[in-house]
Amino acid sequence: MVDNFDVVIIGAGPGGYVATIRAAQLGLRAACVDAWLDARGKPALGGTCLNVGCIPSKALLDSSHHYHNVRHLLPAHGIEAGDVKLDLRKMLARKDKVVRTLTRGVAGLLRKNKVESIAGLASLKGGGRVEVAPHGSGDVRALTARHIVLATGSVPIRIPVAEVDGDRIVDNEGALAFSEVPKRLGIIGAGVIGLEFGSVWGRLGSEVTILEALDDFLPAADRRVADEALKVLRRQGLDIRLGARVTGARLQGDAVLVGYEDAGGARECEFERLVVAVGRRANTEGLDPAAAGVELDDHGRIVVDEHCHTTADGIWAIGDAVAGPMLAHKASEEGVAVAERIAGRAAHIDHDIIPWVIYTHPEIAWVGKTEAELDAAGIAHREGSFPFLASGRAQGSGETDGVVKVIADAATDRILGVHVFAANASELIAEAVVAMAFDASTEDIARTIHAHPTLAEAMHEAALAVDGRAVHI
Ligand code: FAD
Ligand code: AMP
Hints:
The chain has three domains: 2-156 and 281-349, FAD/NAD(P)-binding domain (3-Layer(bba) Sandwich), CATH 3.50.50; 169-278, FAD/NAD(P)-binding domain (3-Layer(bba) Sandwich); 354-466, Enolase-like, domain 1, CATH 3.30.390. Helices cover 30% and strands 26% of the residues. The protein is built from twelve helices and 22 strands. It has helices at residues 16-25, 47-52, 54-72, 88-112, 192-203, 223-235, 328-342, 371-377, 392-397, 425-437, 442-446, 457-466; strands spanning 2-10, 30-34, 116-119, 121-126, 129-133, 141-150, 154-156, 169-170, 184-188, 207-211, 239-241, 245-252, 255-262, 265-271, 273-276, 280-282, 315-317, 356-358, 363-368, 381-387, 403-409, 415-422. The chain is globular and about 65 Å long.
């Protein structure tokens, strides 16, 4: 049996399922194929983000934040909670329930949009043909489509010096499900994922050591924010060791012995568990891109032009499987844009204003350029910043760590970058993204009334500070 569609989308992560829904909204006959199986071996939509990424990690970050606050923040507010106990099983079960609710929600959305959702591994056959091998037994299903969208996402990078065994040595999936709080937890990589898991387990009681090969902390972030974040995270108890390249990891009894090299020579640490968080790579396993003339680059990413079109006619690719930041909202926006283009509409994504967020506490968020990038490009700029120590709202809530920094073009005052380290930076950054999407100047933010008392006032003050007019500092 051959099924014929206007568009077949391969992958139901935030790239693929959003592309599918938008295609259906535009009147295209769409099918979405996805291979994900949950821990019980059942198909689950939502990809990495909903199953083992953004959503479960944020659920645990929030739970662990509550636990930490009850023990360490509430006493300063005059609240004594007594003997606070951790029920880790319940915390993990809650996280699993959040995941189930949302992955089922995606299935519901696809149904509502009358999209055919097909479980199984898709491979390209050329000439607009896709074959889907079902899970378990059953016939291979042949699909044809005028357009194919590849949204196959990413998988963790494996390093031979620390092979994941799924028990003592885990990747991001295992780090979501430790059955006990490890006494000593090692993490390789101080990137987004390493810092988020370090925060979760550190708050729950682990002694966390993060080994990072680079000498710089968060090289993609602005230096002021990165330096302040490093100071605060270390103060929280995360033992972040920079310039520490891991050279080996072996099991000995119940322990993981990790060897690494830093400026002082070779060293060894002992942990109960080790998380390998050294990044992710594009996933095209089982897809057979070459069969359809889809080229990959040297990093294994699907090559696309600025419209997300691959090297093969009628085949598009989006999200983690292509170049660019591995972020859910980037995948989704590319998904929408591709669906629009397939439907014959114009679509544009401004890749220069994609917000980044790291969900430590305080959170780290930014959009646009850093000062270092502007210096390297020879663009004259001015900056203004405002520390939360001077914010009335931050004082009231006892969340005074952090800063907002606004960078503007020296000649035109156009905002070029905004960098936030703050309790709710993930929400504050939205104002900066909107401002930049409208080509706003710092004067535009300076003239915009911000409610008092709010943390968002720090954005206002930082914009005023660009022109030396901050009021409260
Ligand atoms: P994916 O979500 O990876 O989905 C791809 C889907 O395609 C999967 O379901 C896969 O099974 C399926 N598939 C692959 N090949 C085939 C095939 N041949 N046939 C059928 N199906 C196939 N991003 C954020 O923006 N914010 C965050 O807070 C955040 N937190 C994260 C935390 C962690 C621990 C991790 C690991 C990632 C996090 N990310 C976060 C990144 C985010 O998860 C990814 O950027 C996002 O999931 C990419 O979406 P995607 O649709 O491209 O791919
Ligand atoms: P990210 O790409 O943001 O997930 O971050 C992954 C981090 O892991 C990067 O900062 C890498 O420098 C770091 N890393 C990769 N390999 C090693 C290694 N062998 N030892 C220590 N850190 C590593």
